């Protein structure tokens, strides 16, 4: 392609709309244009990158025996009502774009495709002989994200590879899951990315395994906790660890003490000159279920620790049937205004004890009359602890479970692990923290959707049983930007060779010099003919401008038909290292071919 004929517009200044380097660079180098919040046009250079990423994804998927298909983006509400996700996805969570067609039928734009694929499996898979089966697609997804940001990282329309597998049993699912782990690792390696596979939260579905693939980068929205021995890595949402040892308490006598202005753990520790590990703190949450039922939740946890709200959410989701619901609409710490409606008298915030009386709760039809009390495992061992006295300005000290306070029988792990904690598998290992960009997620779904939609098959014994399912996603457009976030310098993008829009760019420093033009034109034809994807900068611009643009756009090899032409050579500059080589014109194609093949194969290892 000739730059003179391309839609090629670069910006010198950082666009105000972008916060992180990759977003700034993709805008400046003319890869993408914002059309609306979270909605981007992929311009020709970007589209080449996206096609390369998609092809790598496709090759690795096909190699596992998965089959590509294309499912509709426009989906009927009924399918989502069958799975029970319509209300939560369109209203509570609100992530799904919904519309009503001219026949007054409700439809949604696909944020994901479990419902559609399960409906197909329900209709078409009859027998165990058809299993296992794995279908995937690469296409646009729509999600009305609350905070679309960072360009392609969190868009409202974005490209995803999503695959769904169907199995006769768990063992077969495990096999495909392991194949996907392998295929995903290959994909990301081939794209030239530094990544880490981490244990991930699998929601309230139960013991199902799930793993995320993270590109390590400062701008990542996820936090990963890992150990240096390489044996443990998990999303902070999922991570477990051993908490720091608790200090043994100096309060041997149980008594109520006046503790003015101690409504935070810090202030209370200062007041008593004690460690936060001697304190049981109690936090009030509210959960709203899909049947409208509301429950106030009291969580007791050691004073130095934080509640992991994903773990709490999962516990509450499991309890939905107890309150007559199927799913959660929201979990929050109720605002002051909401609290006033839910409680008869103001809660003694900052001074709450684990035994806060149920008669605080306003009698109301949709409000459960008792607190749902959880104790994080870390409070069990505490002796002679400090906690709230349920009266503003007062705490109790020297308290013990089974004496002054009953211990909740809902003992669960609700603690947020953090860097510095000791690892469970080896307490001599300490958890470290890194930021990650989630580019892939593989997930053992089990029978959640097949049961809801009645997707069954007949097994060898002739019984009709639900299909066992797995699902596997790659954020194709997010991945392309993540590659930039991991590889750039002050001058611009440094694309890994495997996903660069072009391999080489030929810059003609002076287009009125006919020798320069002739050599460049010949090389341009020759390189493209041997499969080296080459751009020709034949614009009427100063050489400096051309070099700056080539660096910004990030093409791996720049060829300059400049001074050394006199001795039959051109200059070839490697973008990543800025190393410059003088190469005989006749050898340029062969040399580049070797370098490109080397770069591609080293990314495969
Ligand atoms: P996240 O936790 O980042 O919101 P998710 O868990 O909702 O993602 P999945 O439903 O597992 O994502 O989707 C599969 C993949 O699609 C993700 O691993 C991610 O790479 C990508 N993805 C998800 N949401 C977006 C988005 N809004 N924009 C771009 N890519 C996305
Ligand atoms: Mg995810």
UniProtKB/TrEMBL annotation:
One Gene Ontology CC term in the entry: cytosol
Its EC number(s): 6.1.1.15
Location relative to the cell: Cytoplasm
Main location: cytoplasm
Residue stretches making up the Aminoacyl-transfer RNA synthetases class-II family profile domain: 33-496
Pfam families found in the cross-reference section: HGTP_anticodon, tRNA-synt_2b, tRNA_edit
Keywords: Aminoacyl-tRNA synthetase, ATP-binding, Cytoplasm, Ligase, Nucleotide-binding, Protein biosynthesis
Catalytic activity reported: tRNA(Pro) + L-proline + ATP = L-prolyl-tRNA(Pro) + AMP + diphosphate
Phosphoprotein listed as a keyword: no
Domain HTH cro/C1-type residue range list: 254-279
HAMAP family the record matches: Pro_tRNA_synth_type1
Homology family: Belongs to the class-II aminoacyl-tRNA synthetase family. ProS type 1 subfamily.
Protein name: Proline--tRNA ligase
Species per Swiss-Prot/TrEMBL record: Oscillatoria acuminata PCC 6304
């Amino acid at each position: 392609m000739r730059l003179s004929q391309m839609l090629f517009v670069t910006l010198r200044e950082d666009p105000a709309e972008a916060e992180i380097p990759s977003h700034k660079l993709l805008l400046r180098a003319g890869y993408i244009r914002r059309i609306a919040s979270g909605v981007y046009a992929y311009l020709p250079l970007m589209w080449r990158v996206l096609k390369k990423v998609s092809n790598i994804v496709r090759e690795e998927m096909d190699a596992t025996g998965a089959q590509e298909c294309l499912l509709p983006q426009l989906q009927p509400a009924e399918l989502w009502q069958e799975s029970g996700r319509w209300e939560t996805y369109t209203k509570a969570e609100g992530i799904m774009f919904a519309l009503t067609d001219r026949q007054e039928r409700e439809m949604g734009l696909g944020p994901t495709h479990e419902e559609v694929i399960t409906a197909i499996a329900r209709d078409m898979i009859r027998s165990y002989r058809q299993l296992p089966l794995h279908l995937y697609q690469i296409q646009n997804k729509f999600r009305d994200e609350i905070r679309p940001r960072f360009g392609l990282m969190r868009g409202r329309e974005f490209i995803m590879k999503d695959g769904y597998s169907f199995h006769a049993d768990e063992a077969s699912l495990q096999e495909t899951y392991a194949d996907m782990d392998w295929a995903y690792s290959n994909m990301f390696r081939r794209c030239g990315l530094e990544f880490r596979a981490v244990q991930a939260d699998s929601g309230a579905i139960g013991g199902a395994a799930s793993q995320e693939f993270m590109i390590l980068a400062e701008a990542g929205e996820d936090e990963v906790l890992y150990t240096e021995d390489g044996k443990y890595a998990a999303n902070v949402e999922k991570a477990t660890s051993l908490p720091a040892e608790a200090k043994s308490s100096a309060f041997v006598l149980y008594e109520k003490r006046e503790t003015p202005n101690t409504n935070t753990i810090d202030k209370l520790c200062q007041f008593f000159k004690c460690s936060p590990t001697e304190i049981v703190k109690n936090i009030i949450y509210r959960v709203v279920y899909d049947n409208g039922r509301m429950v106030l939740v009291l969580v007791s946890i050691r004073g130095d620790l934080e509640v992991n709200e994903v773990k709490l959410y999962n516990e509450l989701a499991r309890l939905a049937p107890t309150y007559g619901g199927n799913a959660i609409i929201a979990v929050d710490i109720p605002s002051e205004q909401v609290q006033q409606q839910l409680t008869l008298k103001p809660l003694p915030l900052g001074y709450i004890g684990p035994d806060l009386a149920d008669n605080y709760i306003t009698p109301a039809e949709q409000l459960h009359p008792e607190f749902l009390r959880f104790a994080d495992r870390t409070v069990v061992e505490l002796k002679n602890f400090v906690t709230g006295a349920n009266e503003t300005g007062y705490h109790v000290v020297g308290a013990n479970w089974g004496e002054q306070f009953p211990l909740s029988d809902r003992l669960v792990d609700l603690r947020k692990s953090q860097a510095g904690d000791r690892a469970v598998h080896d307490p001599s290992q300490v958890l470290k923290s890194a930021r990650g960009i989630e580019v892939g997620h593989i997930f053992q779904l089990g029978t959640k959707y097949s049961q809801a939609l009645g997707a069954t098959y007949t097994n060898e014994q002739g019984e009709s049983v639900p299909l066992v399912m797995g699902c596997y996603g790659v954020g194709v457009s997010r991945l392309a930007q993540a590659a930039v976030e991991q590889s750039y310098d002050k001058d611009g993008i440094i694309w890994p060779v495997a996903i660069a829009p072009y391999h080489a760019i030929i810059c003609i420093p002076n287009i009125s010099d006919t020798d320069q033009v002739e050599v460049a034109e010949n090389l341009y034809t020759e390189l493209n003919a041997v499969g080296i994807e080459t751009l020709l900068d034949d614009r009427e611009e100063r050489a400096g401008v051309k070099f700056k643009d080539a660096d910004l756009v990030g093409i791996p090899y720049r060829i300059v038909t400049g001074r050394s032409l006199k001795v039959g050579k051109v200059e070839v500059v490697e973008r990543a290292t800025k190393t410059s080589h003088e190469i005989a014109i006749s050898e340029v194609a062969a040399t580049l071919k070797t370098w490109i093949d080397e770069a591609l194969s080293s990314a495969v290892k």
